[in-house]
Structure formats: C-alpha cells, structure tokens
Task: inverse folding
C-alpha cells in the first residue's frame, strides 16, 4: 500500500519516528570477517587442537622444557591475527568508497544516503544499473528488472505502478519511484540468506589442498599416536614420561604447523598491498584465482576505453514525415526519456534537452533491445538505437564510411505510431545519425601486452557493433582484432562451437555473455571477467574471477570479487603479480614444511616395525620448526615471484619434499647401522641423526630458494649458521652432545654423501611425477 506522495516522500519527523521504531534497513553484509572471527579462525584450528593436546600430555608427565613449541605457536597465531586485522581495516576503509548508495525523496527533495539508512516507507529512485536495496512497491514510472541473482531466471521483468521490487534484483532499464515495504531482516534477499549479495565460492587450489592435508593428518595422527604410545609403554616397557615424550615428538613432526599461517599472512599481505593501489579485494582467495587465470574476457567500454563518451559528429538525414528541425526532435526525445547511461549523458551534453508538454509513452534503453523510444503528444515517436535494429539500410555516404571504419554510430528514427510495448514498428524513417567516441586508455596497449606475454588469452565481449569494437581493439594493440563476430543472430546453443573461433564478440546480449564464459570454462579454462555495467552481471557471476570497475553499476560491484576503485584496467597486472607471489611462494616454501612431515611419518612407521623408540624429543623438533622452517619461510614469503603458476599445489610440494625426506630416512638408517659396528655413545648417535636432519633440511631450503639472490643467500647462510650454533650452544637443553672426534667425522662423511643422494632422489622423483603426469595442473575444480 502506497502511503506517501512519491514527489514529497517522508518528512523529517516520519524518518525519525521510523528510526526510533527500529524500522531501518539492515546493514549490508560485511565483506570482511569480524575481529572475533579472525581470532577464532586463527586460534580454533584442528592443528592447534592437536598441539594443545600434545602440550597437555607433556605437562602431565612434567616434560616442561619440551613444551617450548607452544610459545612459537602462540607467536605465530599473534602475527597472523595482527596481519589479518590490519588487512581487514584497510579493506573496510576501501569498501566505504564502493558501498552502494540510494537516492531517496524526503521533504520533497532528492538526497543520496547509505543503503543502511533507508527507513520503512522511504521513497527510493531506481534507474538503470541500481541494485534494489530494500523490498519496495513501484509508486511512479516503470522499470525492467532482472531477478537472476535471486531466482536464477534470466528473463527481464517489467515492473509498473503497484508492482513489487525485490531486494537483490537489479534495474536493467527505465526509472521509477518506489516506496519501501520491508527493511532489514524482513527483506526478501535476507530471508534467502543474502543469496543476492553473496559472491559465489571461489575455487582455491591452496584452500582445497590444505583441506586435504588437514583431513589426511586427522586420519593418520590419532591412530598412529595411540599405537606409538602403546608400543613404547607396553611392549618396550618405557616409563610413562619417556613414552609420552617420544610419541609427542613423532606427532609434532607430522604437523606442518606454520604452513597455514604462511598462506594466511601471504594473502593478507597481498590484500594490504593492493589496497594501497586502490584495488578492493572482496574475496581473499580471488587473488589466487586471478593468478591462475589463462583466459581474460573484457568489456570494451570502461576497460579498453575510458568510458567517457562524447558526440563526435551529427549527420542529418532527409525525411518526409516532419517539418520540425532534427535537433529539436532530439532535444525533445532526451527530455522525455529517463535513461542515464554514458551514451545518453553524452547526447544530453551535446544537444541539451527540452521537456515535452506531454509524453504519451516511453520505452527505456536496455542491453537486450539496444534501442529506446519516446512517444510525444502531437508529434509521434522518436527512437534511438543501433542502425541495424532500426532497419537503417540507407544512410548518407559519409555515415556509411564511418561505419566501415568502425566508428560507433547510433541513429535517430521517427514513426507516427505510438510505441507502448518494446516492439518496433516497420515504418521507421531515419532522421539523423550520430557518431560517438570513447578515448582509449593510455595504458591499454601495455596491459594487453602484459597478458599476452604472460600466456593469458584475451577475448573482448561487447554490446557494440563488432566492427567498431574491432577497430578500437586494433588501436589498443589487440593482436587478433580481425577475428570478430556479430552475435545478434547467434543462438545460445551455438556458442560452444564458435567460442574458440573468434576473439571479439559484438552485439552480445547479457545471456550470451554468460554463455560465452560458461563455454570457455567447460573447455578447461580458468576465466576472469571484467565489467562495469548491468549487462555484465550474469557473466561476472559465472566467471571464476570477477572484476568490476568502481565507476560502474551497483549490481556489478556487488557480485564481483575484486573492485578497481580507480576504474583503471591497468591495475590488473598488479593483482596478477600479487596472486602469483602468494601461490608461488606458498608452493615452494610448503615443501620445506612437508620434508619434516614425510620423514616423521616414515620414521614413526620404521620405529614401530623395529620396536625402537622414536629417536627425537619435542624440543629438538621445535628448533627445526623455528630455525629451518619458520625463519626463512617468513621472510621469503614477502618476496616477489612473478613466474607463471605451473602444476598442482600438493603434487608440486610433494615432488620437492620427498627426495629430502627419503634422504633423511636413509641417513638415519645409515647411522643406526654404523652404530652397531662401532663404539658410539647413544647421545652421539642421536646428535649425528639430528645434525643430518638439519643438513638435508637446509638442502631443501636451498632448493626452495632457487634462483638465489642476495637475500636468499643471506637467509640460507644464517639458517645454516643459526641452526648449528643453537645446537651447540643449547646442547644440554636439546639433550644432544657436542660432537668431536670420530662422531664428528662420521657426520661430515654422511653429510657429504647425502648431497648426491638428494640430487639423485630429486631427479628420480621428477621423472616419476613427469611420467605419471602427476604434476599437470587441472584448471577446473574436482
């Protein structure tokens, strides 16, 4: 029920009464986690749960020195929380710039407010590109809406006076005044769990891989821990403390404790860096998605071009139907319609407008129709649209010449008939042709060159004339500018067959855009889509990674994972490089963590079979965690790494870690064999094993550091010096000896032997993985 005059809206007193009554719109769903969620996600994890249980067991038997690892974990958690909170604050500050606003009528004036300040019975003005922010009833005017984000149905629906607008839908064309009927939790979109505002789940190789690691660890660590303890306590009759300490060391070695922290910090750092470049990251793992992209689909307007349309020239066409000057007819048309896109604003800036005395009917512009009309009393109907849509087969030679060069041309037509429905009559006479220009971005050529050099295939998808798009692409340095097609008469079913044949698609409808993205994904590509208009929303939602321009429509920004706040296409290379830094660094550094995980599992199994105790204790594992894993990984994770991403995360990590882990196992077995044929103190034997673990693990650090640079050489050197210095200085705390004489010689000989063994194991592992194609990257999620 309409209770307020759409021209006056609510009074100030009525607004205050609504606020006092709590009838205020729900605050938009935040794109960042709350601080409490960040703390919970960093503290309440399965790995932390295992670490805590192991710590409790060690405390129970009084092995307090072996609980030092808990301090390292606490430090890691603190660093992770601080970094994520810092990123959260930056993102929230940036999101204020991208937050949708609503134009409401209050006290007879139109004002712009944040959507969360809308109150019940407010009158909101909706026009093309706006997302409906609260359930409303149309009180004046008419609009076409798309409810695909709510219902999945892509059909455009006409909404007239008295019809309901659902929150989460978006305006395709037209303009209306609508009175709010629901706010907050009563909104339709809220009732279906904010489905309209949610971004689709990002496919993340890192996230999926870590989930597998967690599942495998959960499956393995509990039964193996129980068996290790029972064997030590009952079969070998070790005292309780010795049994618990040995079991704890084995289990702690299996947990890649700092790996999740490493990935989280890397992603948070990427978000922080991009925030400073005015890129709003609305989905954390979308950085990884864009880094994996091998197919980029661009909308021409606002991407290759600046989106600043202007009229270049006007060409009058002789006609028989009217005596009024063409320019006056155009001004009357612009005064009658309520379209507000870049084309109409350019027309209005050039021609000005005259408000007709009486408008009988208007059909707003839409991306589907590609025309609009206004029927004016005592004159007739004036139509603006693409030449082919208005049947403009005979145009002045100079206009035909402009079309042949790819210039964007729109024509004005006239018919005496009244157009009430979105169907064009056949008796349209062309009265004028207008050419428009949109400057090409200065960095468009450099950006296209970047993606070409990086192996990312680019396709241009536009609603404009394909020849015009082709010419603009040529000027921007697009290589395959001649491979274009007009999609006007292409059925959706034919899109999978043509999607690989062309690189420029013109006269594309919103549904066709979505189908093009889906077809590319079905071929195994990881697809990114950039867009700014309401006609891009379905394609953005379909893409693996969606990127919106801040100057674009509310709907496009709301569904996109990344928003370029400076609306600069040239910012994309920075995003790609940040994503590559995260993925490449996480992949190569994870191998350092998994060396310990693999040899700990294998050594535990060997100890079970041979009925011997696990040779190490938790405090010794802690030094490896800190000096060999944590220290170099933390600093190297911030380094740039712009190389193309190759291979699956887990197979690549295991391919790099297995050779070192196997070399460590062989070295430990060699020490066991040698100790049986020589008089070697038990502590010396453990020390040699421990030193060898450190040495081969450092070989893993060197492998992860390639290609070496000054920083990486420094890190490797300090890891080597730091580990062995700490092992000697704190030998008593670590329960190892200070090697000398024969034991020291045995260590040096075995250490030298591990180098060729590790090289051979690496070569054999690479051959095995290559032969079985285990490393091949599958671009689609399983």
Result:
């Amino acid at each position: 029920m309409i209770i307020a005059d759409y021209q006056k809206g609510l009074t100030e007193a009525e607004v205050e009464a609504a606020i006092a009554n709590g009838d205020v719109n729900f605050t938009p769903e935040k794109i960042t986690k709350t601080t409490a969620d960040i703390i919970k996600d960093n503290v309440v994890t399965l790995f932390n749960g295992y670490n805590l249980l192991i710590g409790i067991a060690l405390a129970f038997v009084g092995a307090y020195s072996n609980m030092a690892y808990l301090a390292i974990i606490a430090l890691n958690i603190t660093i992770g929380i601080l970094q994520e909170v810092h990123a959260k604050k930056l993102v929230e500050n940036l999101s204020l710039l991208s937050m949708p606003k609503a134009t409401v009528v209050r006290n007879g004036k139109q004002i712009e407010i944040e959507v969360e300040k809308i109150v019940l019975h407010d009158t909101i003005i909706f026009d093309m590109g706006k997302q409906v922010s609260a359930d409303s009833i149309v009180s004046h005017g008419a609009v076409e809406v798309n409810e695909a984000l709510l219902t999945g149905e892509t059909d455009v629906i006409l909404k007239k006076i008295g019809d309901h607008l659902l929150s989460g839908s978006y305006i395709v064309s037209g303009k209306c005044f609508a009175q709010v009927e629901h706010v907050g939790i009563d909104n339709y979109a809220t009732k279906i769990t904010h489905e309209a505002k949610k971004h689709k789940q990002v496919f993340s190789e890192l996230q999926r891989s870590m989930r597998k690691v967690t599942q495998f660890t959960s499956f393995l660590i509990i039964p193996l821990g129980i068996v290790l303890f029972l064997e030590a306590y009952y079969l070998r009759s070790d005292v309780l403390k010795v049994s618990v300490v040995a079991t704890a060391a084995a289990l702690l070695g299996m947990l890649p404790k700092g790996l999740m922290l490493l990935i989280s910090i890397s992603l948070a750092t990427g978000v922080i860096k991009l925030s400073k470049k005015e890129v709003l990251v609305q989905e954390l793992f979308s950085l990884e998605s864009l880094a994996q992209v091998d197919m980029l689909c661009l909308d021409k307007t606002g991407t290759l071009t600046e989106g600043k349309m202007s009229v270049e020239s006007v060409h009058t066409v002789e006609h028989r139907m009217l005596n009024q000057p063409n320019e006056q007819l155009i001004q009357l048309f612009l005064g009658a319609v309520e379209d507000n896109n870049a084309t109409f604003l350019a027309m209005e800036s050039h021609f000005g407008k005259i408000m007709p005395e009486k408008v009988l009917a208007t059909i707003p512009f839409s991306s589907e129709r590609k025309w609009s009309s206004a029927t004016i009393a005592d004159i007739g109907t004036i139509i603006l649209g693409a030449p082919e849509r208005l049947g403009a087969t005979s145009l002045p030679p100079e206009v035909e010449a402009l079309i042949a060069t790819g210039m964007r041309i729109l024509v004005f037509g006239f018919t005496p008939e009244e157009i009430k429905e979105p169907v064009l009559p056949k008796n349209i006479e062309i009265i004028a042709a207008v050419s428009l220009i949109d400057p090409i971005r200065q960095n468009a050529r450099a950006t296209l060159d970047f993606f070409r050099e990086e192996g990312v295939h680019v396709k241009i998808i536009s609603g404009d004339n394909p020849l015009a798009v082709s010419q603009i692409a040529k000027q921007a340095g697009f290589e395959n500018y001649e491979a274009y097609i007009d999609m006007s008469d292409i059925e959706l079913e034919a899109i999978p067959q043509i999607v690989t044949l062309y690189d420029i698609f013109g006269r594309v409808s919103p549904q066709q855009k979505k189908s093009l993205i889906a077809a590319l994904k079905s071929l195994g590509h990881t697809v990114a889509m950039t867009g700014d208009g309401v006609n891009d929303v379905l394609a953005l939602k379909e893409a693996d990674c969606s990127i919106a321009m801040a100057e674009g429509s509310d709907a496009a920004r709301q569904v996109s994972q990344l928003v370029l706040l400076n609306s600069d296409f040239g910012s994309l290379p920075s995003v790609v490089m940040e994503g590559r830094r995260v993925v490449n660094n996480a992949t190569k550094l994870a191998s350092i963590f998994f060396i310990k995980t693999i040899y700990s599992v294998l050594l535990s199994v060997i100890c079970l079979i041979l009925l011997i105790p696990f040779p190490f204790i938790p405090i010794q594992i802690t030094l490896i965690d800190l000096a060999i894993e944590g220290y170099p990984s933390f600093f190297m994770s911030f380094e740039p790494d712009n190389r193309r991403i190759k291979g699956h995360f887990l197979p690549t990590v295991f391919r790099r870690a297995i050779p070192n882990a196997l070399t460590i196992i062989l070295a430990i077995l060699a020490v066991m064999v040698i100790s049986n044929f020589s008089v070697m103190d038990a502590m010396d034997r453990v020390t040699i094993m421990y030193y060898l673990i450190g040495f081969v693990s450092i070989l893993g650090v060197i492998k992860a550091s390639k290609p070496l640079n000054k920083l990486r050489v420094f890190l490797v050197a300090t890891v080597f010096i730091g580990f062995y210095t700490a092992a000697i200085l704190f030998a008593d705390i670590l329960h190892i000896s200070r090697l000398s004489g024969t034991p020291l010689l045995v260590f040096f000989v075995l250490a030298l032997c591990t180098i060729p063994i590790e090289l051979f194991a690496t070569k054999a592992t690479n051959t095995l993985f290559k032969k079985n194609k285990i490393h091949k990257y599958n671009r689609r999620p399983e």
